[in-house]
Amino acid sequence: MATLSDVATRAGVSVSAVSRVLSEKPGVRVSVATRQRIHDAAKELNYRPNFTARALKSSRTHAVGLVVPGVTNAIFAELMRGVEEEARTKDYMVLIASTERLPEGEESIPRLMGEGRVDGVLVQFGDHLSGDDLRTVTDSGLPVISINTINPGSGGSVRLEDEAGMRLATEHLIELGHTRIGYAGGVPTSESGQRRLAGFLEAMTAAKLTVEPELVTDFGYYPKQGAQALDAMAELSTPPTAVVVANINAAHGVLSEARRLGIRVPEDLSIVAMHDTWTAEIAWPPLTCVRLPLYELGRAAMASLWDNINSGTAEDRVIADPAPQLIVRESTAPPAR
Known about the structure:
This is LacI family transcriptional regulator. Residues 2-58 form the HTH lacI-type domain. Pfam families: LacI (PF00356), Peripla_BP_3 (PF13377). This protein is an alpha/beta fold. Helices cover 43% and strands 15% of the residues. The chain contains 13 helices and twelve strands. It has helices at 4-11, 15-22, 32-44, 51-58, 75-89, 108-113, 131-138, 162-176, 191-206, 223-234, 248-261, 278-282, 294-311, and strands at residues 63-68, 93-98, 120-123, 144-147, 156-160, 181-184, 216-217, 242-245, 270-274, 288-291, 316-319, 325-327.
C-alpha cells in the first residue's frame, strides 16, 4: 500500500506538501502545477488515505450521514446520487440510513447515526418523524442541513421550487381545457405539501377557476393515500375531470384506484404528478410529471454541509437551476365533451 512518502517521492516534493494538498487544508501555498503533480502521483500509486489516523489527528471522521424516509423510494435515488458525487469531490464518505422501518418509539436519529461517527448530517424529514427526532437533530451539536424543509434549528437548508413545479402541473391541465380540477396533496404538516398546495391555488386563481374545498385533499404522499384521495373525489356528485397529485408515489395510488373504480385515464380523468422517476415511465398509462432537480438538490445539500462543517456557515437555499420541467406522457388529455 502506497504511503505519503511514496507519493512525495513520485511527485518530487516534501511529505508535508503532499499531506497538506491531499487533506485540502485551507491556505496551502502550492502552485497549480505542483498540486496537479501530487494528485497525479497519488492516482498513479493508488494512494488511499488512512482515515483512522486522519480522524484521530483532525477530530474529523470524513464521513457524513444522509437520513431519508426510505432508501427504496425512487424519488430519493437521484438525490442520493447527487449527495454521493459531491461528497466524493470533498473526499467524504456518505452513510445512508432510512427511518422508514424503525420500531415506533425509538430515538431514530441517535440509533442510526451513533455518536461521533459523522462530521455532519443531511436530513430529509419524513412526515412520520416525531418532534423528539427533530430536536435530537438540531440539538446534536453537529452541522445539520435539512433537505426540502426549513431547518427548525440553527442549521441551513436546501429546497426545491415546489410552488413553481405545482403551478406548471396545474397550468398544463388548464391549457388542455380542464376547469374542474382536484388536488391530492401531502399531510397538512408537510412543508413541501404546503408549498405545493400554494402553487396549485395560485395557478387556479390566475386562471379565475373556482377551487371547491371538497376537491382538495391532504392525506399524504404514499400510494394508499393517493387512492384514498381519489376515492373521496369519486364519491362527489360531480367528480373532477383531472387531478394534480403532489407526489409521484401518491399518483401511482390514484392511477391504480382509478383502474379499480373503472375510471379511464385519460379519457375520464387526467393525472399529472410532482416528480419524474423511472416508475412514471413504466406505469400504464405512463404518467405526465413535473421533473424537479433532485440530483442538483443532493449536490447542493452536500456542498452546504461541507461549508457548514468547515466554516460554520449555514444558509437556506432554493435550487432553481434547472427549473421545473413538464414531462408530458399519456395520462393527460383534453376533457371529454
